[in-house]
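INFO  loader      accepted 1 record
INFO  loader      residues=126
INFO  predictor   begin
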Amino acid sequence: MDLESNKQTVLAFYEVGLNQKDFEAASKLIGNRYVQHNPRIADGIEGFAAFLGQLREDFPALRAEVKHIFADGDFVIAHVHGVRVPGQSGTAIVDIFRFDENGKIVEHWDVMQPIPETAENENGMF
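INFO  predictor   done
INFO  writer      dumping tokens
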């Protein structure tokens, strides 16, 4: 596995997929079988296409900014600040991607936590 190449693939996936909502460009980064663990998104490349279509319609200005990215073996983990609507605090997200032997994304998990308006400390979520 080329860890740096896998990280760059994930960064490109965020940019073309989530930020630009360009299914054609994002689909080139996905392998033949795409296993989705987010219960709100259908499995497979078709599920991802439907998800992007929904984002284009419901949240056209959505932006995802990768704050930290890590690679280990065939996994890449990204710590992301997602903002659906400009001006909102957004969501802290940890995305986990698994790669196949061809350097394509084949599996995805995520955990999300809304960023509160106030906090008991000044450390921030990123």
